[in-house]
Amino acid sequence: MASGPIRKGRTLTSDPIDDPLRLDDQLCFAVYAAAQAFNRLYRPLLARLGLTYPQYLVLLVLWEQDGLSLGAIGDRLGLDSGTLTPLLK
Fold first, then answer.
1. Predicted pLDDT at 6
2. Phi-psi map region of 78: left, alpha, beta (phi>0 left; psi -120 to 50 alpha)
3. Cα(48)–Cα(56) distance, rounded to whole angstroms?
């Protein structure tokens, strides 16, 4: 019987640095980490205004072009109306 770590469909390399699926080598993880860093930076600033980051984004869109419909705001931000509606209440 084999012992040691098992990954479904592949085996671990002896040197994790050579692993092409290493977390630090994934672009998606770098983007996620950067987004988290921005949220940590913006959160205290926006909290003083009583805003969340998504609410802030909606205000920026409306500042650029006032009077947009809910659908147009959603298109600009990549959000559906089900996500936007609670932000605007």
1. 54
2. left
3. 12
Low-confidence ranges of the chain (pLDDT < 70): 1-16
The torsion angle over the Cα atoms of residues 66, 69, 88 and 76, rounded to 10 degrees, is -80
Give, in order, the Cα–Cα distances in Å from 7 to each of 4, 20, 26.
10, 14, 18
CA-closest candidate to residue 51, choices 37, 68, 39: 39
Q: What is the pLDDT of residue 89?
A: 78
SS3 7: strand
> How confident is the model at residue 8, as a pLDDT?
59
Q: Does the residue 14 lie in any domain?
A: no
Q: Whats the size of the chain, residue-wise?
A: 89
Give the bridge partners for 7, in sequence order.
10
How many domains are contained in the chain? Answer: 1
CATH number at residue 74: 1.10.10.10
Q: Is residue 48 one of the residues assigned to a domain?
A: yes
